[in-house]
Amino acid sequence: MKFVSVPLSLQLAVMRTLRQKLTQASYFLQQKFPEPQITYQQRGTIAGSARLQEWEIRLNPILLIENQQTFIDEVIPHELAHLLAYHQFGKVAPHGKEWCFIMETIFEVPAKRTHPFSVHSVRSQIFIYYCRCQQHELTIRQHNKVLRGKNCYVCRQCGEKLTLLAET
């Protein structure tokens, strides 16, 4: 993975929002929460992830830079809500009622499971496969499994085995 440096101004904006949301949660739940560690090491098309036991939030630096304020407004509360749900309720469904409660009631942010960002700049190479009814996009990982004979993909619509068309 190539290293992407997040500008200091963006890092400060991330921390400002994180601290504001932590303050909201502390006030609402009547307890103090430690500040999670923030790292900018998330890769691929995922905007962020919460590492529950480590009390860490990983952010995708490329998607953060490309989508600055929307990323901060949506992804920071989303990942923090995962940490708080785990802290308050233990092991629960990742986007279950406890997480939704924290997002909507405490943070007053819509509880969306996925981000709306374009992933064109962070998407890995795609391989086009086809069947009798449509084209299918397989990732490099899926394509390599086909080449090694470890997997065979079948269309869910027509049931036909997928065949490689071309690389994009």
Q: Which secondary structure elements does this structure contain, and how are they paired or packed?
A:
Layout: H1 8-29, E1 37-39, E2 48-51, E3 56-59, H2 61-66, H3 68-89, H4 97-106, E4 126-130, E5 135-139, H5 140-147, E6 163-167
Parallel strand pairs: 1-3
Antiparallel strand pairs: 2-3, 4-5, 4-6
Give structural notes:
Helix 1 (8-29) packs parallel to helix 3 and helix 3 (68-89) packs across helix 4 (97-106). The chain has 5 helices and 6 strands. The two termini are 21 Å apart. The chain has a 3-stranded mixed beta sheet. Helix content is 40%, strand content 15%. It is of the alpha+beta class and 168 residues long. A hairpin with a 4-residue loop joins strand 2 and strand 3 (56-59). 23% of the residues are buried. The radius of gyration is 20 Å and the shape is elongated.
Summarize the structure.
The chain is α+β, with helices and mostly antiparallel strands and 168 residues long.
DSSP, total strands: 6
Distance between the termini: 21 Å
Reading side by side through the largest sheet, how are the strands ordered?
1-3-2
Number of helices: 5
User: Overall 3D geometry?
Assistant: elongated
Helix and strand composition category: alpha+beta
Low-pLDDT segments: none
In terms of DSSP E residues, the strand content is 15-25%
The protein's oligomeric status is single chain
Mean pLDDT: 92
Helical amount: 40-55%
The rounded Rg comes to 20 Å
Taken in chain order, the helices and strands follow as: HEEEHHHEEHE
